[in-house]
Amino acid sequence: MIPDSLNYSLIFLGLIKIFFPSDTLNFEYDMVNSFIGGMIGFFIIFLIIYLYKRYKNIEAMGLGDAKFLAAVGLFFGWKSNHWLI
């Protein structure tokens, strides 16, 4: 279980990172790239949750994972490859 306080704190920090980039961080500074990353991160897990619930008629996971991936997407963007270096 991922607490909402952690998820919302990370999303808030990701939004701050977008609007106030720092030269000391190794993150992508493109605002649109980060927003798209947040949306893709959320909707990939949301789609898995939705499809599983629709076909199996049971809830397998909550939205905490989707919110957490939205925060990760905000930090790294949708085409970030800094972790490969």
What radius of gyration results from the CA coordinates? 14 Å
> How many β-strand stretches?
0
Principal-axis shape: elongated
Structural class, from secondary structure content? mainly alpha
Low-confidence stretches: none
Question: Into how many domains do the coordinates divide?
Answer: 1
> Termini separation (Å)?
31 Å
N-to-C SSE string, H for helix and E for strand: HHH
Largest beta-sheet characterization:
none
Helicity, as a percent range: 55-70%
Beta content: under 5%
Separate helix tally: 3
Mean pLDDT: 80
Short note summarizing the structure:
By secondary structure, this protein is an all-alpha fold. The chain contains three helices and no strands. It has one domain.
Task: Please give a structural write-up.
This protein has about 80 residues and is mainly α. About 65% of the residues lie in helices and about 0% in strands. Helix 1 packs parallel to helix 3 and helix 2 runs antiparallel to helix 3.
Index terms:
85 residues; mainly alpha; 65% helix; 0% strand; elongated
Outline the secondary-structure elements.
Layout: H1 4-19, H2 31-56, H3 64-76
